[in-house]
What does this fold into?
Amino acid sequence: MILTRENTPRWLIFLIDLLIILSAVILAYLLRFNFAIPSSELKPLPGILLYMALIRSITFLVARSYAGIIRYTSTGDALRVFGTVLAGSLIFAVTNLVTYFFIGHFFFIPFSVIIIDFLASSFGMIFFRLIVKLVYLDFHRSDREKVMVVIYGAGEAGIIAKRALDRDAGTDYKVMAFIDDNTSKQGKKLEGVDIISPAKLDDLLSSHAIAQIILAIMQMDPLKKQALVEKCLEYNTKVLTVPPVIRWINGELSFNQLKNIKIEELLEREEITLDKQRITREIAGKTVLVSGAAGSIGSEIVRQLSRFAPRQLILVDQAETPLHYLELETLSNSPSFLTEFILCDICNSDRMQKIFETFHPDLVFHAAAYKHVPMMENNPVEAVLTNIGGTRIIADLSVAAGVKKFIMISTDKAVNPTNVMGASKRIAEIYTQALNSATGTRFITTRFGNVLGSNGSVIPLFHNQIEKGGPITITHPDVTRFFMTIPEACRLVLEAGAYGEGGEIFIFDMGKSVKILDLAKKMIQLSGLIIDKDIQIKYIGLRPGEKLYEELLNVEENTLPTHHPLILTAKVRQYELTAVRRDMDELTAMIPGRNNFDIIRKMKQIVPEYISQNSVYETLDNQDGSGEPADIPH
It folds into this structure.
């Protein structure tokens, strides 16, 4: 049987097409002569049929109209059939002109027959393909349980999503309803499916086993999206999203392009409004250097900067492969400005000096740093070398090169630090602040917490653990963190950099803290898995230097408001440059000895509020400061 074969043989499709066009010719003659063909027209009919079959066969072979897989017939296949039949009909028309003007003033084929044949052949061939496709789908879905789906959005994207489900041969989907906020659409039908109000979603989920909800709205209010997903998770209903149109293949959406909603989308806030004119004035036509440009934060800063027409971007990173990928991405966007991709360690002072002397940057965005708390707790020398020493090198070179503004990317862990990483970033802050008051370069610091999807975020880790079947590892059931999306954080960096006058430490409003356990559970559910059945959650204990709760930064006692509701200014004490340089020189001088406890002791002297937690360095926090534990060199 044709429908049970993997693919219908092409020769069979070719013969069926020929049968259709011959039947169309005969039908055209019958209609032309009111089902009473005169004998004068019957005599040449065999020759006409042979000639038309020959021309049609040639056009079919040239256009390969028979080569498509019928069960996947699409609009493109129908247009190909239409064009092939039209080409043959045009040849018939030209034949008539030749016989009339050059042979004997007669039409070889009546023009009315050509027109009727064209319509009948096109309809017949396309109808044949659609019928086979529908029969095939019904035949292969007849023994399958229907998967019930709801589409949120009754616009064009919703219609296209439904058609993508209809085309999917792997599963038998039944669209139970469209949901739309537009009251003028509610109560109507779309392709035979009811359009209902969002208020009826709860009843629909409770009364039917809805397997999936497809979000077919390109821009949806974050709070509304969060509420929708929370409701779906109550009923174990998966939520899929329709990708942007630019990601569709050849202008068509396939079911495989529908993706599970990401946890990052549920933690988004409303789009941040930026002062684009002011940012443009700061960046347009300027040479901008970005350190750590290939990292998760640095690369997004590069994308954001690219929108404001800089004259040149100098992108520095020591990670070869990520920098290579950034180069491919940046060049594929055909920027109208110059871009240099420089593989370099910021601790290499000679190399960095050459970069500054060659390119003379106007602005510097310093995102290069070691950020993993446990790693820096075990390798404090590297934290001092890069986070402190590297920052000092770039900051000093910026002053020497007459850089207008230096924007440093810091962390909320620099506030009352409990670990080496946070303390190293705080010392870097202190140095740039001291430079600001003593030089012509304006140094601005931005602080924010965890960013979703960054290289140091728990979310990529959880994704990887879920893909491997678990378990998901969490340090403590009560641990909480503040989160912000990477684009959101980088937009605020540009805003703060544009408005900063120098010496400020800008703090970003991170919103509400998120319990990591709740985050993990939600990610498991969004993956369509069941907690403790499909995947387990395992507690592994707090890591060195880690604390349960990040501090809330936007309390009135330590911050001041700014022009932007999501940006605050930290109130911190000022430092004298000479004293800071002396402390940093002493700290740097300890590096060759690699005595971690001596290094940490000096860091605690520079930053008195640095109190270690869950760390071997807690012994240094006694009242008289004389703790002398055994050294643990690395």
In short: The chain has three domains: 2-141, 147-261, 276-451+484-509+551-594. The first strand starts at residue 147 and ends at 152. Residues 111-141 form the longest helix (31 residues). Residues 2-141 form one domain.
